[in-house]
Write a structure and sequence with these properties.
This protein has 423 residues and is α/β, with parallel strands linked by helices. It folds into 2 domains: 116 residues, 3-Layer(aba) Sandwich (Rossmann fold), CATH 3.40.50.300; 294 residues, no CATH class. Helices cover 36% and strands 14% of the residues. A 6-stranded mixed beta sheet has the order 7-8-9-10-12-11, sandwiched between helices. Strands 2-3-4-1-5 form a 5-stranded parallel beta sheet. The longest helix has 22 residues. The chain is globular, with a radius of gyration of 22 Å. The two termini are 24 Å apart.
Length: 423
């Protein structure tokens, strides 16, 4: 099959021409290697035992010969990081090394952080626009410009189409499978993380089912700021003696290192104009399809309203998973636009905004996500509040919906179906 460009390819176009080495980080199976291969003259796949053994015996061999060089799953032989760093010190010309990894290296595994030599670039699963099921007409980068241009476009995707996309996942190879093989592969993926990937990170899991139960509880907390103690409680119902909080922290840390958890941090603006903001992250798995699979939810059951969020204030499980899909579709182009993504929630919960996309200069695009085809005045009350608080710091405000049309309301709020949002 011909390679279909991803949003990250534009970032690589901008960066790899001038930077000598880039590390592409992200979850296994999302296409990191395929994307990197488009730019590589030589490839060292370290998930192959024979290649790994030869490189481990002499890591310097990756630096000899034609470049660009791709080192796949580089964290399996961490010494290559320092080889690349020294090669870059000797020759700083752009476009030499791509390091692809599906886990962060163990602390102390490399002699040097690579700061100033090796750039880090996050890759995430396929967004809706990258799945090519609709034609985007609204640019996130355009919204971040602050021009507040006209918004237009028609989207043929229905609610059931979005639900199918949640369940299908953003894994390129898995999403194309028929339903039963796809469910089997997602189940196997999660089991392999717990049985193989986690122990490789040095965390002994005596009861793998206990970690899977914790993951299911985390999935039920999708799009919420539920405490880790409540997640641990939900994972161990009926147990009089709960595991120590450190168990939950250990699970969280190792699964984050494997890029499986992708929480949205709380937005902490510079200055003192907003001082009553919460600091808890909003929980998300890297792909909402994994969350749906952990909870045993199909397209049909989601549409039937089945699924109980861990936090009752989160609404329906379908609403939480749709917000997670929308969050993925915002974070990927936001990174390409050199912007950060957070969420806003006041400490007493009276105001919250699902996503705050922040430029380097601190100016903000505020986004609400609604599992609805239409938008009422009540739906955008928090966007009006944040507009009053931020004044000129607010670049624009948008509601992401499941509706058929993109437009601007008379109050200036952009209303955009998720299928029409692109980079």
């Amino acid at each position: 099959m011909d390679y279909l460009r991803r949003i990250i390819d534009s970032e690589l176009d901008d960066l790899f021409t001038d930077l000598p080495a880039l590390a592409i980080d992200g979850l296994k199976g999302i296409g990191k290697t395929t994307t990197a291969q488009q730019r590589a003259a030589r490839v060292f796949p370290l998930d192959s035992s024979s290649v790994r053994e030869s490189v481990a015996a002499d890591p310097r061999r990756i630096a000899g010969g034609e470049r660009p060089v791709l080192v796949d799953e580089w964290q399996k032989v961490p010494e290559v990081w320092d080889v690349v760093r020294r090669a870059v010190d000797a020759d700083s010309a752009g476009g030499q090394f791509l390091l692809v990894g599906s886990a962060t290296p163990e602390p102390g595994a490399t002699a040097h952080t690579g700061a100033g030599r090796i750039g880090r670039l996050r890759m995430r699963p396929l967004t809706v626009s990258e799945r090519r099921i609709a034609n985007p007409t609204v640019s996130l980068q355009g919204l971040l410009s602050g021009d507040r241009a006209d918004i237009a476009g028609d989207c043929r995707l229905s609610l059931s189409d979005y639900v199918d996309e949640i369940v299908a996942s953003g894994f390129p190879a898995i999403r194309r499978l028929p339903p039963r093989p796809r469910k089997f592969q997602l189940d196997s993926y999660l089991r392999n993380v717990v049985d193989r990937d986690v122990p490789e990170r040095g965390l002994a899991v005596r009861r793998p089912d206990a970690m899977l139960a914790w993951l299911r509880a985390y999935a039920a907390a999708t799009s919420s700021t539920a405490s880790y103690s409540s997640i641990l409680d939900a994972a161990t119902p009926g147990l009089a003696e709960k595991p120590a909080r450190s168990t939950s922290v250990a699970y969280r840390d190792v699964l984050t290192q494997l890029w499986l958890l992708d929480p949205v941090p709380a937005w902490q603006p510079a200055g003192s104009f907003l001082t009553r903001l919460g600091q808890s992250p909003k929980h998300h798995l890297a792909d909402p399809g994994l969350a749906a699979r952990l909870l045993g939810l199909s397209s049909e059951s989601l549409l039937d309203g089945i699924g109980e969020p861990l936090d009752p204030r989160a609404g329906t499980m379908l609403g939480a998973l749709f917000e997670s899909l929308a969050t993925l579709c915002v974070r990927v182009p936001a990174q390409a636009a050199e912007a950060q993504v957070g969420h806003l929630r006041t400490r007493n919960g009276d105001h919250e905004v699902d996503l705050m996309v922040v430029r380097d200069d601190g100016r903000v695009l505020a986004i609400e996500v609604k599992l609805s085809a239409s938008v009422s005045d009540r739906d955008i009350r928090h966007l009006h509040w944040v507009r009053e608080q931020l004044g000129p710091r607010l670049l624009d405000a948008m509601v992401i919906t499941t509706g058929p049309t993109a437009y601007r309301r008379q109050d200036g709020i952009a209303v955009v179906p998720l299928g029409l949002l692109g980079p």
